[in-house]
UniProtKB/TrEMBL annotation:
<comment type="function">
    <text>Catalyzes the conversion of 7,8-dihydroneopterin to 6-hydroxymethyl-7,8-dihydropterin.</text>
</comment>
<protein>
    <recommendedName>
        <fullName>7,8-dihydroneopterin aldolase</fullName>
        <ecNumber>4.1.2.25</ecNumber>
    </recommendedName>
</protein>
<dbReference type="GO" id="GO:0046654">
    <property type="term" value="P:tetrahydrofolate biosynthetic process"/>
</dbReference>
<dbReference type="GO" id="GO:0005737">
    <property type="term" value="C:cytoplasm"/>
</dbReference>
<feature type="domain" description="Dihydroneopterin aldolase/epimerase">
    <location>
        <begin position="4"/>
        <end position="117"/>
    </location>
</feature>
<comment type="similarity">
    <text>Belongs to the DHNA family.</text>
</comment>
<dbReference type="Pfam" id="PF02152">
    <property type="entry name" value="FolB"/>
</dbReference>
<dbReference type="InterPro" id="IPR006156">
    <property type="entry name" value="Dihydroneopterin_aldolase"/>
</dbReference>
<dbReference type="InterPro" id="IPR043133">
    <property type="entry name" value="GTP-CH-I_C/QueF"/>
</dbReference>
<keyword id="KW-0456">Lyase</keyword>
<dbReference type="GO" id="GO:0046656">
    <property type="term" value="P:folic acid biosynthetic process"/>
</dbReference>
<keyword id="KW-0289">Folate biosynthesis</keyword>
<dbReference type="GO" id="GO:0004150">
    <property type="term" value="F:dihydroneopterin aldolase activity"/>
</dbReference>
<comment type="pathway">
    <text>Cofactor biosynthesis; tetrahydrofolate biosynthesis; 2-amino-4-hydroxy-6-hydroxymethyl-7,8-dihydropteridine diphosphate from 7,8-dihydroneopterin triphosphate: step 3/4.</text>
</comment>
<dbReference type="InterPro" id="IPR006157">
    <property type="entry name" value="FolB_dom"/>
</dbReference>
Amino acid sequence: MDKIYMNQLAFYGYHGVFEEENKLGQRFIVDLVLHIDLNKAGKTDDLQATINYGDAYKRVKEIVEGKPYNLLEAVAETIAAELLSAYDQLQDCTVKVIKPDPPIPGHYQSVAVEITRSRS
């Protein structure tokens, strides 16, 4: 299966289990891998035969910058469900939600959740 990669989509949201996360908000980074047959798009040069990157970005932005969730897992599930619902040609998608600055002690680059969901 062919793939569309959308890497390091950056947003500001209010997700987390701690009160200060819901008040102050923080950065979130999203990586997407969209599995789709790109044969027709490649041969016809027709945007309708693929997924519009700008539209996909807008849908992810509305979720990450919208309603707060406690868990990254819930953010990722919501993104995957929205993308699979929006694009009939999308066979499955991998969604990685990264929290670069979680309020936990220690030395690390980030924490993240990655899920893969398929059309049922």
